[in-house]
């Protein structure tokens, strides 16, 4: 169904693999369109509880497609950036959490894609960087914004202005990834995290994600109010009744996403 993406569902977890290894999984227009389509499919499947995004071969994603970009004029480049922003925002605001399993190079648009995910787990082989200024352009899939929000303004400037490539351990040290694991442990570890999330109340998970996303860029007073109202909303779910009853009755909760 997709030419550049492998998509699989096992139990309630979606596995999405970008599959363009000959070009290091570079994001061209087709990959971006297919990513949007596959994540729309994920969003519409109410049985899913978490998604894992990874890349086939040596790279997670080695950036936007430089060959395709080299032929773009100003208008086309702007449209390409809009398309990329659309995909990143869709993933960031997806109902269920998305875990980036960063298996190798996550450069430029690839680093930006990983940052649009909720949690980043890196293989010891992963490498991160924003090499754009070396190509005469800038991060255009929201890297100037998401990177500074994740690692701070100073470190974001260091990475973007020098185009330095860092390894997984350094990415972990600066807070760009949450965990570093051996290559063979990457997918099992992501699956373990996905299953932990999947075992929790889906509405509470979705509302927590929404609160963090929408509160992060607001002032503290607005964000606090947003959390207060969201906290109240979870009390109207059947899963709230189930979760609290199960605790009191000393049994395992069975959540229904209701
Ligand atoms: N775009 C297109 N093709 C690529 C890309 C890419 N980003 N990265 C790798 N490839 C291709 C290579 O050209 C090569 O193709 P071929 O076999 O036909 O020659 C193939 O993938 C394998 O790559 P290498 O032979 O270079 O493999 P190495 O293991 O020697 O090196 C690297 C791997 C280090 C990942 C190297 O390929 C590299 O440096 N790639 C480019 C990384 C880069 O600069 N990325 C940033 C791109 S710019 C960007 O992402 C901007 C995002 C915002 C866009 C906003 C829209 C306006």
- Which sequence of strands runs across the widest sheet? 1-2-3-5-7-10
User: How helical, in percent, are the residues?
Assistant: 40-55%
Task: Give the C-alpha Rg.
Answer: 19 Å
Report the CATH architecture of the largest domain.
Alpha-Beta Complex
Question: What low-confidence regions span 5 or more consecutive residues with pLDDT below 50?
Answer: none
Hetero ligands:
octanoyl-coenzyme A
**Class computed from helices, strands and strand pairing:** alpha/beta
Number of helices: 11
Mean pLDDT comes to: 97
By oligomeric state, this entry counts as single chain
CATH topology group of the largest domain: 2-enoyl-CoA Hydratase, Chain A, domain 1
Any idea of the CATH class of the largest domain? Alpha Beta
Largest sheet: 6 strands, mixed
Per DSSP, what share of the residues sits in E-state strands of 2 or more residues? Answer: 15-25%
* Coarse shape: globular
Number of domains: 2
How does this structure look, described?
Helices cover 49% and strands 17% of the residues. The chain has 258 residues and is α/β, with parallel strands linked by helices. It folds into 2 domains: 5-198, 2-enoyl-CoA Hydratase, Chain A, domain 1, CATH 3.90.226; 202-249, Orthogonal Bundle (Lyase 2-enoyl-coa Hydratase, Chain  A, domain 2). The strands form 2 sheets. A 6-stranded mixed β-sheet has the order 1-2-3-5-7-10, sandwiched between helices. A 4-stranded mixed β-sheet has the order 4-6-8-9. Helix 1 (29-44) packs parallel to helix 3, helix 3 (74-92) runs parallel beside helix 4 and helix 9 packs antiparallel against helix 10. The protein starts with a strand and ends in a 10-residue tail after the last helix. The mean pLDDT is 97. The chain binds octanoyl-coenzyme A. Residues 23-24, 26, 62-67, 77, 80-81, 84, 105, 107-109, 131-132, 135, 139-141 line the site of octanoyl-coenzyme A. Octanoyl-coenzyme A is lined by residues 23-24, 26, 62-67, 77, 80-81, 84, 105, 107-109, 131-132, 135, 139-141.
